[in-house]
Amino acid sequence: MSSVSTDSRAAVAAQLAEARAATFALLEPLSDDELARQWSPLQSPLVWDLAHIGHFEDAWIGQRVGGLSPVLEEGEELYDAFRHARDGRGGLPLLDPAAARDYLCRVRNRSLAVLGDESLGAEGDPLLEDGFVFGLVLQHERQHVETMLQTIALAGLLHPGGGPRPVPGSGDVLVQAGPVRLGADDAWAYDNERPLHERELAAFRIDATPVTNRDWVSFVGDGGYRRRELWSDEGWAWREADGAEAPLGWGDGTVRRFGRDEPLDPDEPVQHVCFHEAEAFARWSGARLPTEEEWEKAAKAGLLRGIGEVWEWTASPFVGYPGFRAFPYPEYSEVFFGDEYRVLRGGSWATHPSVARLSFRNWDFPIRRQIFAGLRLARDADPIASLLGPGDRRAALEADVREGLASSPKRLPPKWHYDEEGSRLFGAITQLPEYYLTRREREILEAHAADIAAASGADTLVELGAGTSEKTRLLLDALRAAGQLRRIVVLDVDEVTLRESVARLAAEYPAAEVKGVVGDLERHLAELPREGRRLVCFLGSSIGNFDVEHRPRFLRALRAAMAPGESFLLGVDLVKDPGRLVAAYDDAAGVTARFSLNLLSVLNDELGADFDLSTFEHVPRWDAGRELMDIRLRSREPQHVRIPALDLEVDFAEGEELHTEISAKFRRERIEAELREAGFEPRAWWTDEAGDFGLSLSAAV
Ligand SMILES: C[S@@+](CC[C@H](N)C(=O)[O-])C[C@H]1O[C@@H](n2cnc3c(N)ncnc32)[C@H](O)[C@@H]1O
């Protein structure tokens, strides 16, 4: 602050004065009794907010910066927001309105003295950098003006109040895939807006304007509040308990606003709806809520109209940005991080413009309706979200090849088998007489898909490493037959196969929303869509491709990406006669060998390498000690391979082996122990009649 000029100190003082004038003016029309009453368990008595504004200012400026003792001895006990829940504040021995105003004036006089102190900030306190602490206090007061307006509205007190302005118009805009800079590094930005960072987003569509009263009248008229299928479980539970039939305050063509009934303006953005209502409306519209990242990207690109009329619910839970650091205290945001809250963006007609910045993140419980909140709709531009853009895929391939071919023994991760041709060859493998895995897993699914649908209670099926999702149809049919199926999400590294699969699934399951995610299940589990009650499937014993170190990491990452109670269905190939195992990976027709060699074709095609496939042979071995099939490509002769894209040359000695894949085989006890270790509770276990293959259903706990 020492570097801050007298002019900027004067500007801060002027803003503090403006905020204070607004606070006093807001409460001016109300009687002492109205100020002192606890009108709702959701809101503090107005006189509590008033004195709390003074307490917060005194705690940060007078006490923390100025080193002074409290202006009000019992300030901390009465007015610290964490001491007493809102519904208990009316019973506290609060200052009366006149005393509270006087308290605020005394605190303010001291704050201005601190602000004017020339030696301020000499020790380089980060709180004083660019006057941060004054910004904190100023924004806090302005935010409480809005909170008090909510209370006044909820209490139905006669007051000039206000409301959103009409935002007529309709239509949506396409936001292209690409990066967005999220957050802010402005001097007065809050900790939860920091650090400014970049994220890649898939393309999406978003409405240019917020949802209006006109739209909502149609939703109500279409039975929106009675149609169970439009609501999440949590949302329906709220609706049943609350009995809501329309937004808070709606009458017959009217809206109750600050003590008066006014005609409903069809062009005004709807307000006083909770997250659950917003979500049900979005589903009714065949759309969804935007994530906060999408909202911010569209807003920063200047594509949205009507920002600042109503807070807009987003689909996002309130969590810290990567690299988040609590400042100046964890109680501002960090203690609220988690799944319980949803983020709102944009600001309402009651929010001061300095607070309603595009990076500002508000948050509240999904059941709250007293806030001046509405929504805006978004849609996927493409049912496929690519988390592995061409650049990412290429970078990951290059890194794996560089590292794998430099290591000893040489190795490459199995995921690079799967380009379009690799996926086609895998499909052919599943038809081979020797490859019993697919048939056995199908046999189990035929017998138990209905049990799995019932036990999971899922409305959303998520499949990892989905490929063509052939066997998965059995589960989808069972979910549909039980009337549960709402959403299908398939993730795979191979975009070509995934696109075809999504198109076929969408045609076969028209009532479900189908999404594809091009991604790597070792990196992108946290970014899987979270809507619905999910049954996550990982079939085909693909988990056997992880070695013993990577398996727990994968399972833990998956558990972290799931909510308690969601289900995980895992297919595992079981330990058996080595002769049958080796045959399954060394078929007579040589299809598995071609699949194995396809890894080298991928390097030739994508990196311009000059591997001669005829000089390598497919070598599958049973490793009895580790109970896994160990698959390698052996060089038949000494050779020199060039990989121009990496500017890399690699030598292979005659007989040298390149490790390409393992396929671990399982025993029930071992895989169940690993599941438990990762935070899953195994609930059911089935095998095929011959006992070749196992299917485990567990719950995230
Ligand atoms: C053995 S196939 C199994 C396909 C199908 N789930 C089944 O049971 O028949 C493995 C599938 O996982 C995909 N895959 C392999 N590694 C992956 C990775 N790291 N991330 C995402 N998908 C991957 C492949 O493209 C392929 O479709």
Secondary structure layout plus pairing:
Layout: H1 6-27, H2 32-36, H3 46-65, H4 75-79, H5 97-116, H6 132-155, E1 172-175, E2 178-182, E3 197-201, E4 204-207, H7 213-221, H8 233-242, E5 254-257, E6 260-263, H9 275-284, H10 292-300, E7 311-318, E8 338-345, E9 362-364, E10 373-374, E11 378-380, E12 384-386, H11 390-406, H12 420-429, H13 436-456, E13 460-464, H14 472-481, E14 487-492, H15 495-508, E15 513-518, E16 534-538, H16 550-560, E17 567-573, H17 578-584, H18 591-607, E18 616-623, E19 628-635, E20 639-643, E21 648-652, E22 657-664, H19 668-677, E23 680-687, E24 693-700
Parallel strand pairs: 7-10, 12-15, 13-14, 13-16, 14-15, 16-17
Antiparallel strand pairs: 1-4, 2-3, 4-11, 5-6, 7-8, 8-9, 17-24, 18-19, 19-22, 20-21, 23-24
Helix pairs in contact: 1-5, 1-6, 3-5, 3-6, 8-9, 12-18, 13-14
Summary?
With 701 residues, this protein is of the alpha/beta class.
Description:
- This protein is α/β, with parallel strands linked by helices.
- It folds into three domains: 6-155, Four Helix Bundle (Hemerythrin (Met), subunit A) (Up-down Bundle), CATH 1.20.120; 172-380, paralog of FGE (formylglycine-generating enzyme), CATH 3.90.1580.10; 386-579 and 666-700, Rossmann fold.
- The chain contains 19 helices and 24 strands.
- The longest helix is centred in the N-terminal third of the chain and has 24 residues, at 132-155.
- The radius of gyration is 31 Å and the shape is elongated.
- It starts with 5 loop residues before the first helix and ends with a strand.
- The model has no long low-confidence stretch (mean pLDDT 95).
